[in-house]
Design goal:
The complex is a heterodimer of chains A (266) and B (276). Chain A has 266 residues and is mainly alpha-helical. Chain A has a domain at 9-130 and 240-266. Chain A has 11 helices and 2 strands, in the order αααααββαααααα. Chain A has a two-stranded antiparallel ribbon with strand order 1-2. The longest helix of chain A has 31 residues, at 153-183. The radius of gyration of chain A is 24 Å and the shape is flat. Chain B folds into 2 domains: 35-60 and 76-236, P-loop containing nucleotide triphosphate hydrolases (Rossmann fold); 246-276, no CATH class. Chain B contains 10 helices and 10 strands. In chain B, the strands form 2 sheets. In chain B, strands 6-7-8-3-9-10 form a 6-stranded mixed sheet, with helices on both faces. Chain B has a 4-stranded antiparallel sheet with strand order 2-1-4-5, with helices on one face. In chain B, a hairpin with a 2-residue loop joins strand 4 (64-69) and strand 5 (72-73). The longest helix of chain B is centred in the C-terminal third of the chain and has 16 residues, at 177-192. Chain B is globular. Classes of the chains: A mainly alpha (266), B alpha/beta (276). The interface between A and B is medium-sized, with 29 and 41 residues.
């Protein structure tokens, strides 16, 4: 049951989107998210749709894959839609009992739902086309300027790397402990929520103990390999910006400008 | 330039456990290991052999006495990183010593910490992976590899730091037999072809047969040392310390006890076959 969990579900490829510098990709995603919140009419949405659609086509990630990421959020999107549709006052279209649907409500609801959809599609495109290690590298480099104000950029990136490294190891271990406890008669699958939560205790206790033991050993192994924090550290793979990075950043900024223009000048 | 890689001088290590009792893990140990030597440290659990290994890498500091790695005292703090670079260390659990999510990134971890130029790191990583014969796995995720392969990646990670000496702290204890053979072959290769000084800690006797010298530890003391032939021929003594001897040696010992004329220092099946 734990095998199905994929985190940072990377879709390997060799397209221009995959090859973009992770820093640029993170920045573009940020621009895209901010832009989404400035959209308030349908024409700029066309630009957003065009932008995201072209990116998906270029990345060669099957659309099915991306839509799969929307599935768990489907209910949230639906709830958002209804709450917005119901609670926005305005010109009445029809009402069912005490619930009244207004023109403004429908409009608002559609925007909110679309916003959520594009938010998820945009960010999942980032994780689908960027390997976890490139992603952490990008985050570390982007946060580097903030080190002066005391932000531990390297430490954060290191924590992410180690977390990614140990997710499969700990999942495997959880599986093992679960089977061991089941062999001794533990029951993880029946009973109400309280009972199920209680039955997790004999799973979590050994898991935590072993995680701490692992942490201790890993720390020792890292020290033995001369780890002493981020200062004076070099990297084997150096990130460098190419023409395509500047170009795609330019296109994103252009899209952002168009959306701002529509919002404030039309 | 002298020929001594590691010099241990009257080393004592005490620690206090949870109940405030003072335990002595190492008791006045003195030892010299020469450059290029292949030393195996034997002893059962709690004999202090892992504690000794951690001292060589300056992960633990002595309560009394000194350790010199290539002439550098492990207690001088400014030499700490030089010592860890000179004496690399491979641990028991292959899972708990890999840091990165991709094999080659993990091998690069050591040299990255040393602040080496990116191009040079690339070279070293490729070379290290070649030595442990894992080049074709360089872009794999470590958790998908077998135990023996993971341990070879860990060895490559140490090699990429260009150490003169590699300390192995029971690297085969958690591996299956085929993984053990893989790792042992790699260790022997490091010693013979790369000229690294090897300190190999284990409780598998058959891994000690090819060593230049065997050191037997018991209750924090060195109780026996010498060439494999010298050590394993003292069958009664080894048994007294709760240690096994290679099967063939045991066989010849029993044959001798039965009055059959056979040398007492036979270590391998081939030697036995030749004699019979």
């Amino acid at each position: 049951m734990l095998k199905n969990i994929t985190i940072g579900q990377y879709f390997p490829g060799n397209t221009i989107i995959h090859k973009l510098d992770p820093r640029i990709k993170i920045l573009i995603t940020l621009i895209f998210i901010i832009a989404l919140f400035f959209v308030d009419s349908f024409t700029p949405y066309l630009f957003v749709i065009a932008f995201i659609f072209i990116s998906i086509v270029l990345s060669k990630v099957p659309l099915k894959y991306i839509l799969k990421g929307l599935k768990p959020l489907f209910i949230i999107i639906l709830i958002t839609f209804f709450i917005n549709a119901i609670l926005t006052p305005g010109k009445l279209i029809f009402n069912i009992g005490p619930i009244s649907i207004t023109e403004e409500g429908l409009r608002q609801a559609t925007f909110m739902a679309l916003r959520l959809v594009f938010l998820v599609v945009g960010t999942s495109l980032l994780t689908l086309t960027t390997s976890p290690i490139a992603l952490t590298d990008g985050i570390e480099k982007l946060l580097n300027p903030f080190r002066k104000v005391g932000l531990p950029a390297h430490e954060l990136a290191m924590m992410m790397t180690i977390a990614l490294r140990f997710i499969p190891t700990l999942l495997e271990e959880t599986d093992k402990i679960m089977k061991a406890q089941m062999a001794r008669g533990a029951d993880f699958e029946s009973g109400n929520i309280m009972n199920r939560a209680k039955s997790l205790v004999p799973l979590l206790v050994p898991l935590f103990i072993s995680a701490f033991r692992r942490a201790d050993e890993l720390a020792m192994a890292m020290e033995a390999r001369c780890y002493r924090g981020g200062d004076n550290r070099t990297r084997m793979k150096v990130l460098s910006l190419e023409k395509r990075d500047y170009l795609s950043l330019g296109i994103s900024l252009l899209m952002f400008a168009i959306i701002i223009f529509f919002r404030y000048f039309i | 330039m002298n020929n001594v890689m590691i010099k241990i001088d009257n080393l004592t290590y005490e620690y206090t456990n949870n109940e405030n009792q003072t335990n002595i893990a190492l008791d006045n140990v003195s030892l010299e290991i020469e450059k290029g030597e292949f030393v195996v440290v034997l002893g059962h659990n709690g004999s202090g052999k892992s504690t000794l290994a951690k001292h060589i890498n300056a992960l633990l500091l002595p309560s009394k006495g000194h350790i010199y790695v290539n002439g550098m005292d492990t207690q001088s703090e400014d030499k700490l990183w030089d010592i860890r670079q000179t004496a690399g260390m491979v641990f028991q659990n292959p899972d708990n010593q890999l840091v990165a999510t991709i094999v080659e990134e993990d091998v690069a971890f050591g040299p990255e910490n040393q602040g080496i130029e990116p191009k040079e790191i690339r070279k070293r990583v490729d070379r290290a992976l070649e030595i442990v014969e894992m080049t074709k796995y360089k872009e794999h995720a470590p958790h998908l590899l077998s135990g023996g392969q993971k341990q070879r990646i860990a060895i490559a990670g140490v090699l990429a730091m260009n150490p003169e000496c590699v300390i192995f702290d029971e690297p085969t204890a958690m591996l299956d037999p085929s993984g053990r053979i893989e790792v042992m072959n790699t260790i022997k290769k490091l010693n013979k072809e790369e000229g690294k000084t090897i300190v190999h800690i284990t409780h598998y006797m058959d891994e000690a047969v090819d060593a230049d010298r065997i050191i037997v530890m018991e209750e924090g003391k060195i109780v026996l040392q010498g060439s494999p032939k010298e050590v394993f021929s003292q069958v009664e003594k080894m048994k007294e310390y709760g240690l096994d001897i290679p099967q063939v040696t045991e066989l010849s010992y029993k044959l001798r006890n039965e009055g059959i004329e056979i040398p007492s220092d036979i270590l391998t099946v081939e030697e036995m076959v030749r004699l019979i």
